[in-house]
Write a structure and sequence with these properties.
heterotrimer, B: mainly alpha, MetI-like fold, 2 domains, 12 helices, 78% helix, C: 268 residues, mainly alpha, 9 helices
């Protein structure tokens, strides 16, 4: 028999390959009293002047305070501003809270507030928020604790834009190195930012609103949904919000001892349409689509009840929400009648031939794909054939922004002022000039929207936007699908988190831990 | 040998240049606009035009290409559009992690494949042979995105031996490199087995046997050496597959490497960052292949290169 | 005789696979697209022998129909890549010199390039879909064969029997196909069986990135990628398509090995 000693051979293998030399030092264990939050995507800019993605904004809100802040009912509350006064319809003065200091110990002054706004308005700094502040004529300190905002013209959504995080005077811009040295006034201070890996915040013991109950927060970036759940089960993650496969919830409750909080949110899912498409330009067709879709079934089965059917962009908790608009429940017969009326007859009745084909673009996320497949099935029952095309995000987004689609589905997160209608449905904002991607044109709506941003009284605006909502529900440039619910998973022993409708994480400052730290 | 090495090194640059040219034109021609991503939802048309002008994205593609090349010649990879940091710094921060992962995966694949492949060839049609076949079947039929979570469920959740994800200790490295290296191990096992079986029938082995060399010597001196030839070729080829596979493996295991950065850069159409990532990936691929070519030559001195 | 048996067993598996692909519409108990949202994630039952997926579709039927896509993607990718790779690799290895350098640099350029980016570029320009998946996989795939063929031919070029054939006035095409090909076949066969398995898996990876076959067309790869999120609550969604891939790979391997043995005996 043959004897073979593999040893010399193995040594050859070892020599042949460069040894992986760079095993970095072991990850520091979680410091005592820290809460670990799992995130699905990397926050790119915590600096409030550059933050645009949801996670950047949510973590930024823990580091920075703004003049005002939206509470969990969507109402504007004082934050760094104790109060504000309206001098005339173009001038506001904000009185700053006293005794607020930055993380570096420097007291907050009006100069910091003015600096923050001015550095966004300076085109040199390339802030993505510049366009949203175009209405500002000047921002000037009036003494150490008062700031005056002058507007170019009366502009109602102005107050909403005071939810911008304030940075200290002279903070650097546009520079990767500034990432490690972000200074705010918030309940947490930045300890470490490893892009793509994790962000560590430590509690600000001198926070003007009282020190947080936890010693600090660690945001771990875990892109894969499955792995996020497994890290939670392993107790390496204590807290997860949203982006959880709904079917995993019973398992998480039973096998991973998760406490599950479910609260209604404001994220709005819709189907966008190209109104210049020869078929979709008919209002009856859009209405038929709205009746042909069985939202309830999708919500019940694919989303496991984690949403409620939507009637429009603004959710019921919004101050301008209008409830008396046409609502669309699943009614295939009516959809078929509408299509017949519009002249799109089914060539072979109940047979396989469709009335017409439409392309439906979506991203490659599992849930979005499944949604597309369910919609395809539902619409085939009224004789409409959807051709589903899934794209990688970059391609998809570029097509949508350019208005290159028949149908697509996306969602809007964190809608605050109803002036968003102006950006989405005013005829001035048809691409390439703005986000009216479906090319919706209605002079009546244009006029109402212009009026809405000029009128300063809440009641007056409510009347205007109620009219806008009614018209849009009739014209259907978007088919409303649902408002998503927020799902929060916490480990046993974590108390005090209040979910916000827009997914804000500010309530993490109130959270207390009663578990001892896990085994290393 | 020295002349050959010098020639290969000389050819290295044109290849890299070709790759970079391909990347440049591909990423610029694919639909998508970085300015949209940078300025966000609400930017006005004029702001976008201004930024496009500042970044030089409004120039003819050819001019952009020559600009890119002259920057490259000066060692300047430019600045990331979205991360607002220099590309070289971003890439340098991520590259070690990817190198660590891919090299470990390769090492693991070799460590598994050589013993299994050799034993399979020695004891052909035995149960060890069948076992190695089964192993390579598993390796070939399980895509990374399925194998990864399965390994986590077994080794981290059920058995509790290894961490779920992340980078840090040696233990963190095991599951991702096993996931990444599994397919390579599977291919290598079959290759080694088959190469050994081929060689065993060659005349010179028979001669060696006839000369009364011990069976072990026949194996080590002749059979293995010759079977290494095809293995070396495969290693070079497979390294590219490992680099490509790292994109998915890094996403699953939350591995902070270049693969994830590349995906992110592609999604945001961050042109300079995509180019920087590909530059590094392509260079390391070409280097490994240069190395395998040299090894190839060392193993098989019969080959002459050039006249 | 054991090898003979293995070869036939492998061939039987592959025949069964092709038959499944051809007859999917008659043997599948349900339509692969027929949804029933109420009946989601069911495990094995009389009605659904392999259970149902998240949209309540019959997993067995989807696997049977999925064989079509997977066989088509696997076979066409391997055949096209193999032909292209063989021609370019043998020309490069046989003639050497400048042509060799040029072709191998082209191969290097393509190989140094992450296939994923190429696939995105492809689908972005042409749109996602089955044909473009195959095209993208071939574009990435042929280079491997080319390098393998070139390396083998480089070694064979120096062998006595090749010199003899050349001395007898054999032209390049003749020498390559008649004298070198038999020696090339074993590694090529093995590479192709891997290539086919690789193509089936790669289609899944493209689906994982949203660039594969478009829903609701089933393919094994896309079933694996879709079922992944349900590993803990409905493992059957990945187990069965995974088994289908494994059996196919087994068949390919047995046939590859068997053919190799056969050629080996003939060669002596």
């Amino acid at each position: 028999m043959l004897k073979f000693r593999p040893r010399s051979f193995l040594i050859f293998c070892w020599l042949g390959i460069a040894l992986p030399g760079c095993l970095s030092s072991s990850q520091p264990d979680r410091p005592p009293g820290y809460l670990v939050v799992g995130l699905e995507s990397n926050p790119t800019h915590l600096d409030p002047r550059y933050a645009t993605d949801a996670n950047s904004i949510r973590i930024g809100a823990l580091l920075f305070n703004s003049l005002t802040r939206t509470d969990q009912n969507g109402n504007l509350q004082p934050d760094l501003a104790e109060r504000w006064e309206t001098i005339d319809d173009r001038t506001y003065i904000f009185h700053l809270r006293k005794g607020v200091t930055f993380h570096n110990g420097k007291p907050l002054t009006a100069a910091d507030v003015a600096y923050t706004y001015r550095s966004i308005l300076d085109p040199k700094n390339r802030s993505p928020k510049r366009a949203t502040l175009q209405f500002l004529e000047s921002v000037d300190p009036v003494g150490p604790d008062r700031v005056r905002f002058r507007l170019a013209e009366p502009y109602a959504p102005f107050l909403e834009s005071t939810n911008l995080g304030i940075v200290p005077d002279g903070s650097r811009t546009n520079d990767g190195s500034s990432r490690q040295s972000l200074i705010g006034t918030g309940p947490f201070a930045l300890e470490e930012f490893l892009p793509g890996e994790r962000i560590m915040l430590k509690a600000n013991a001198n926070y003007w609103g009282g020190s947080p109950a936890v010693s600090g927060l660690i945001f771990k970036i875990i892109p894969d949904a499955m792995v996020r759940v497994l890290e939670f089960k392993k107790r390496n993650v204590d807290f997860l919000q949203n982006d959880i496969e709904p079917d995993m919830l019973p398992w998480l409750r039973d096998k991973a001892q998760a406490s599950i909080q479910i609260a209604q949110g404001t994220t709005f899912q819709y189907i966008g349409m190209n109104l210049e498409h020869p078929i979709l330009k008919h209002r009856e067709v859009r209405e038929a689509l709205a009746y042909g879709i069985d939202r309830e079934a999708i919500i019940r089965h694919l989303l496991k009840g984690l949403a409620i059917p939507a009637t429009g962009m603004l959710s019921p908790i919004h101050w301008a929400y209008e409830s008396s608009v046409p609502k669309f429940s699943h009614d295939p017969e009516r959809a078929k009648r509408l299509l017949d009326q519009a002249g799109f007859h089914d060539p072979d009745g109940e047979g396989p031939l469709p009335r017409f084909k439409l392309s439906y673009k979506t991203t490659n996320l599992d849930l979005r794909r499944r949604m597309a497949e369910a919609l395809k099935q539902q619409l085939s029952e009224v004789g409409i054939e959807l051709e589903v095309h899934t794209f990688e995000w970059g391609t998809f987004y570029a097509d949508i922004k350019r208005g290159n689609f028949d149908l697509y589905s996306l969602s809007w997160v964190g809608i605050t002022d109803p002036d968003i209608y102006f950006a989405l449905f005013h005829s001035r904002n048809i691409p390439p000039n703005g986000d009216n991607r479906g090319h919706y044109r209605n002079p009546e709506v244009d006029q109402l929207l212009e009026q809405g941003r000029r009128s300063l009284g809440v009641d007056e605006r409510r009347v205007i936007y109620s009219e806008v909502q009614k018209i849009l529900a009739r014209d259907l440039p978007y088919i409303p699908l649902w408002w998503a619910k927020n799902v929060v998973l916490t480990r046993q022993g974590i108390r005090g988190f209040i979910p916000y409708p827009d997914g804000d994480l500010i309530s993490l400052k109130n959270v207390s831990l009663s578990f001892s730290n896990p085994e290393a | 040998m020295n002349r050959y090495l010098a020639r290969r090194l000389l050819l290295f640059l044109p290849t890299l240049f070709g790759t970079l040219t391909l990347v440049f034109f591909l990423i610029h021609l694919v639909p998508g606009d970085p300015v949209e991503v940078m300025l966000g939802e609400t930017a006005s048309g004029t702001d976008k035009e201004t930024l496009r002008h500042e970044l030089g994205l409004d120039l003819p593609l050819w001019t952009q290409y020559t600009r890119f090349l002259s920057g490259l010649a000066l060692g300047d990879l430019g600045r990331s559009l979205y991360e607002q940091d220099s590309v070289s710094r971003l890439v340098r921060a991520r590259f070690p992690a990817t190198l660590e992962l891919t090299l470990t995966a390769m090492l693991l694949a070799l460590l598994i494949a050589f013993p299994l492949g050799i034993i399979a060839a020695l004891k052909r049609h035995s149960w060890t042979d069948r076992l190695s076949l089964l192993f390579s079947l598993l390796g070939l039929s399980m895509p990374n995105f399925w194998l990864g979570p399965l390994l986590i469920i077994v080794f981290s959740i059920e058995l509790g031996w290894l961490p779920v994800s992340g980078r840090g200790t040696l233990a963190h490295l095991i599951l991702p490199s096993a996931t990444l290296g599994m397919a390579m191990a599977a291919i290598l096992i079959r290759m080694i087995r088959s190469a050994l079986l081929d060689v065993l029938h060659e005349d010179y082995i028979q001669t060696a046997r006839a000369k009364g060399l011990s069976e072990q010597k026949v194996w080590l001196k002749h059979a293995l050496r010759n079977s290494l030839l095809s293995v070396v070729t495969i290693i070079g080829l497979q390294f590219g597959t490992l680099l490509a596979g790292s994109i998915i493996t890094e996403t699953i295991f939350t591995w902070p490497g270049l693969g994830r950065l590349t995906i992110q850069a592609i999604q945001t159409r961050d042109y300079p960052l995509v180019q920087g990532c590909i530059l590094v990936i392509a260079t390391s691929y070409l280097l490994v292949n240069l190395m395998t070519d040299i090894v190839y030559r060392l193993v098989d001195p019969r080959i002459t290169y050039g006249k | 005789m054991a090898n003979r048996f293995a070869l036939f067993f492998g061939l039987a598996i592959l025949l069964l696979l092709v038959a499944t692909a051809l007859l999917a519409s008659t043997i599948a108990p349900h339509s692969p697209a027929e949804q029933n949202l109420e009946q989601d994630l069911l495990s094995t039952s009389k009605e659904h022998p392999l259970g149902t997926d998240k949209l309540g579709r019959d997993v067995l039927s989807r696997i049977l129909y999925g064989a079509r896509v997977s066989v088509l993607v696997g076979l066409s990718t391997v055949i096209i890549s193999l032909l292209l790779g063989f021609v370019i690799g043998s020309v490069s290895g046989y003639f050497g010199g400048f042509l060799d350098q040029l072709l191998m640099r082209l191969v290097d350029v393509l190989m140094a390039f992450p296939g994923m980016l190429l696939a995105i570029a492809f689908t972005a320009v042409l749109g996602p879909g089955l044909h473009h998946v195959i095209l993208a996989l071939c574009l990435i795939g042929w280079t491997g064969y080319a390098r393998l063929v070139r390396g083998e031919i480089l070694a064979l070029r120096e062998k006595e029997f090749v010199h003899a054939a050349q001395a007898l006035g054999g032209g390049p095409a003749r020498v390559i196909t008649l004298h070198m090909l038999p020696n090339l076949l074993p590694p090529l066969l093995i590479q192709s069986t891997f290539g086919m398995a690789g193509a089936i898996i790669a289609e899944g990876s493209l689906s994982f990135l949203g660039l594969g076959v478009q829903p609701p067309t089933p393919s094994w790869g896309s079933m694996l990628s879709e079922g992944r999120q349900f590993l803990l609550v409905a493992p059957h969604l990945t187990t069965y398509p995974g088994l289908a891939v494994m059996i196919t790979v087994l068949g390919l391997n047995l046939v590859g090995d068997g053919l190799r043995d056969l050629l080996e005996k003939k060669g002596k």
